[in-house]
Specification:
The chain is mainly alpha-helical and about 375 residues long. The chain contains 18 helices and 2 strands. The protein has a two-stranded antiparallel ribbon with strand order 1-2. A hairpin with a 2-residue loop joins strand 1 and strand 2. Helix 3 crosses helix 18, helix 5 packs antiparallel against helix 6 and helix 14 crosses helix 17.
């Protein structure tokens, strides 16, 4: 795989998808998808034992909630094979370490586990804030155990992540703790902005992009930076890989927002048009609302309705986003973000062959299937 995605897949990491359907823009397949799947499987095999050990150290009531959220067991504690997501962030830590010349991924296992703990703490809280009913095709933790229990388990998971890193003897651990703590503050700011946008009618696209970078890009960037530090890459490489992660995070969010409108419930585990039903100011929606088009005006009218949107109104809202250009813009913007990410990656990893795993992960997060 070359350092430039154009060499990797002929058309680039999603370039040329702006005029295609969203499913085409997010599909993973072929050898590239297999490479990413194998990379994630290797990462999980290394990180999962440390992750489980950390969760097992929690008080039993919180441990039960956390393990259920991760998909390891049912609400009554019986084993489950639901699965705990792709674990892209810990894979980024390990891939970044090796990309900058780190020889042994095992030295960053605790760091990778800490990043994944932070990610899942945010998911627990997001599900409560958004009142999401399902995650990974089953009831969210707050529905299974109650709002208070889910929030407290998330709080404990956050503290646990910092403890896992603070107790690590690696020389890069202190820097990693600071970066992860700063990242959590940024994540919270992004979440707060996201919630505030729901009460506003004047959200700009620039504000929405800034929010998405904080809420989604910050932790992916942190994962890349922490991996670089643990691999001995130094602060310059850490900053470049932080920027790389932030850009693929924005590309990820753009595609995620498309899935939130047009995703297949059988794949996403969420109702069709869930983001529209919640009147979320997602990136394609904000673009459409500010497009100055007739379709954008109609979308604003639908969003202003006080009653829940009917199935017909949800379909009309999705069509309005599409006709106002929101869908095509989001697909094209995700390609631009991917190109920017590759530029940052080249700054951090001059040897193209050393960037293979990071590029495979970037392809994965921006070419997800509905």
């Amino acid at each position: 795989m070359g350092i430039f995605a154009l060499e990797r897949s002929g058309t680039g990491a999603g370039t040329g998808t702006a005029g295609t359907g969203a499913a085409e823009a997010t599909g993973t397949g072929g050898q590239e998808g297999q490479e990413a799947a194998e990379l994630l499987a290797r990462s999980r095999a290394v990180v999962d034992p440390a992750l489980r050990a950390a969760i097992d150290s929690m008080p039993e009531s919180m441990r039960l909630v956390a393990g259920y959220h991760f998909g390891w067991w049912e609400a009554d504690g019986t084993p489950s094979d639901t699965g705990s997501g792709k674990a892209i962030r810990p894979a980024l830590v390990l891939a970044a370490l090796q990309a900058v010349g780190g020889a042994d991924p095992a030295v960053a296992v605790r760091a990778a586990a800490a990043v994944e703990l932070v990610h899942n703490f945010t998911l627990l809280h997001d599900d409560v804030i958004d009142r999401d009913l399902t995650r990974r095709h089953r009831a969210t933790a707050w529905r299974a155990f109650g709002t208070t229990e889910a929030i407290l388990a998330g709080d404990a998971m956050h503290s646990l992540a910092l403890r896992v890193l603070a107790e690590d003897g690696h020389p890069a651990a202190p820097q990693a703790v600071r970066r992860l703590a700063d990242c959590v503050v940024e994540l919270c700011a992004g979440q707060q902005a996201d919630c505030a946008f729901e009460q506003r009618t004047d959200v700009t696209l620039a504000e929405c992009l800034e929010m998405a970078e904080a809420k989604t890009g910050a932790l992916l960037g942190c994962a890349g930076a922490v991996g670089a530090l643990y691999g001995g890459g130094g602060e310059q490489a850490a900053e470049a890989l932080d920027a790389f992660g932030r850009e693929i995070g924005l590309a990820f969010q753009l595609i995620d927002d498309l899935i939130g409108i047009w995703g297949d419930p059988a794949v996403t585990g969420k109702p069709v048009g869930a983001d529209l039903a919640a009147r979320k100011k997602s990136l394609p929606v904000v673009f459409a609302l500010g497009s100055g088009t007739e379709a954008g005006t109609r979308l604003a009218e639908l969003y202003a309705l006080e009653s829940p949107l009917t199935e017909e109104e949800l379909a009309e809202a999705a069509d309005a986003v599409d006709r106002a250009g929101g869908r095509a813009w989001a697909q094209g913007e995700s390609c631009e973000r991917m190109a920017a990410a590759i530029g940052h990656l080249a700054d951090a990893v001059p040897d193209p062959s050393a960037a293979d795993d990071l590029l495979a992960l970037a392809e994965l997060v921006t070419r997800r299937s509905f």
